[in-house]
Write a structure and sequence with these properties.
Helix content: 25-40%
Number of strands: 13
Strand content: 5-15%
Oligomer: single chain
Shape: globular
Bound molecules: flavin mononucleotide
Largest sheet: 8 strands, parallel, barrel
Structural class: alpha/beta
Length: 414
């Protein structure tokens, strides 16, 4: 009897993916990092945050990447970020990781330091590669202090410690946030990084800190945990990080042995990550697909594409063509926690995406980013309480919520 021939299976959203470290994602849909702002005032993850990840864990995603967790309690991206710098909250961190993983999702903690865009004007002492304010008003009323070489050594130790704690607590790995204009992304940017020592001046010097952090983190978490990096394809700013240099960084990260590169772009000044400059790529649905395709031609590094992806047909198409390996979704998970299960079941309609209120005035970009965060934070609470489809609060409640969280943070700072 002739042997049965098996048709090679096309890669689609429901295909598993084994990463270089040996961990297998059960499918190709990832919840991208979204800052939940559900930490306690002392930096511990709250029970609401754990419930939110239980809901997302039931929602079928192959990979759940947490919102950014701070490596240093002196520097927050937003009020109520979780901070992980020692083992005092390890049990709560473990409960958080397990809540997400209970139904088979792989959970990864994103770790971050905001650098010069630490919450301002409430933040005591922002730091950055150079003593240069960002151009966006609202996050930068205090001029940052340029980090010394000793500070950089401390920063590297902190990244490694937070990563080790995350894995010890029960996360499958970490994602180093090197995108969106935070500290590591500031080092990569010729605009923000005007140092004249070995951490600035040339592309190799600008990427030195990121590569050192990646090496330290790998040493801290070992070869069998996931080490991912989120990188800007470009900053979309004059004299910011450009695509050609970003591709070189991606190759260096591949050499450094990371498991998954998430491609994004932009910062508070030009929020390309949520579509601010997407007009030219609208026909593609995904904001950063062209970059991923270029990278794929010269690299086998597992790639995750995040930003604007919404339809099942598009996802399966880019996966089948091999341009990327994982599809990252952010905002859809903030209105429909089960979105991955629906996509895996074959639902073809894009998720109906209510959007956050915006101030329609020039120069309001950073304020609008803040409103977006507050609006999403309200949704996260609803999902944690069990809602399956949320439509988001109105403009007034969003403004009030943003004001309350900023004030709460301020009271704990002074
Ligand atoms: C409320 C909110 C919070 C976010 N927080 C983070 C974060 O902590 N870390 C990060 O890398 N990206 C963050 N992002 C960006 C998302 O990960 C993602 O790159 C972006 O939303 C584009 O994907 P989408 O079009 O599917 O939403 C955030 C986005 C939103 C809307």
């Amino acid at each position: 009897m002739p042997a049965k021939t098996r048709k090679p299976r096309t890669v689609a959203v429901d295909s598993p993916l084994t990463l270089p470290c040996g961990i297998t994602l059960p499918n190709r849909i990832a919840k991208a990092a979204m800052s939940e702002q559900l930490g306690e005032l002392d930096g511990a993850p709250s029970q609401t945050l754990t419930r939110l990840y239980s809901a997302w864990g039931r929602g079928g995603a192959g990979l759940l990447i947490t919102g950014n967790v701070m490596i240093d309690r002196r520097a927050y991206v937003e009020p109520r970020n979780v901070t992980l710098e020692d083992d005092r909250h390890l049990e709560a961190v473990g409960n958080w990781a397990r809540a997400g993983a209970r139904e088979g999702s792989v959970t990864v903690m994103q770790i971050n330091h905001p650098g010069r865009v630490a919450v301002g004007p409430l933040h005591r002492r922002p730091v950055g590669p150079s003593a240069l304010r960002p151009q966006a008003v609202g996050f930068n009323l205090r001029r940052p202090r340029a980090l010394s070489l000793d500070d950089l050594a401390d920063l590297r130790r902190r990244c490694a410690r937070t990563a080790e704690l995350a894995v010890r607590a029960g996360f499958a790995g970490v994602q180093v946030h090197a995108a969106h204009g935070y500290l590591l992304s500031q080092f990569l940017s010729p605009l923000a990084n005007q140092r004249t020592d070995e951490y600035g001046g040339t592309p190799e010097n600008r990427r030195r800190l990121l590569l050192e952090v990646v090496a330290d983190v790998r040493r801290a978490i070992g070869p069998t945990a996931i080490l991912s990096v989120k990188l800007n394809s470009a900053d979309f700013q004059r004299r910011g990080l450009e695509e050609a240099e970003s591709l070189e960084i991606a190759f260096a990260l591949e050499q450094a042995g990371i498991d998954l590169l998430e491609v994004s772009g932009g910062n508070y000044e030009t929020p390309a990550m949520t579509g601010a400059v997407a007009d030219s790529t609208r026909e593609h649905e995904a904001y950063f697909l062209r970059y991923a395709e270029q990278l794929r031609q010269r690299s086998a590094l597992p790639l995750m594409l995040t930003g604007g992806v919404r339809t099942l047909d598009f996802m399966n198409d880019v996966l089948a063509h091999g341009a990327v390996d994982v599809i990252g979704l952010g905002r859809p998970f903030a209105v429909q926690p089960d979105i991955a299960a629906d996509l895996l079941a074959g639902t073809r309609e894009p998720v109906a995406l209510p959007t956050a209120p915006r101030l329609p005035i020039p120069g309001a970009t950073p304020i609008n980013s803040y409103l977006q965060l507050a609006w999403h934070a309200a949704n996260f609470r609803r999902i944690a309480a069990g809602e399956k489809q949320v439509s988001g609060p109105g403009a007034v409640r969003t403004l009030v919520a943003a004001g309350i969280t900023v004030t709460a943070r301020a009271l704990t700072q002074f």
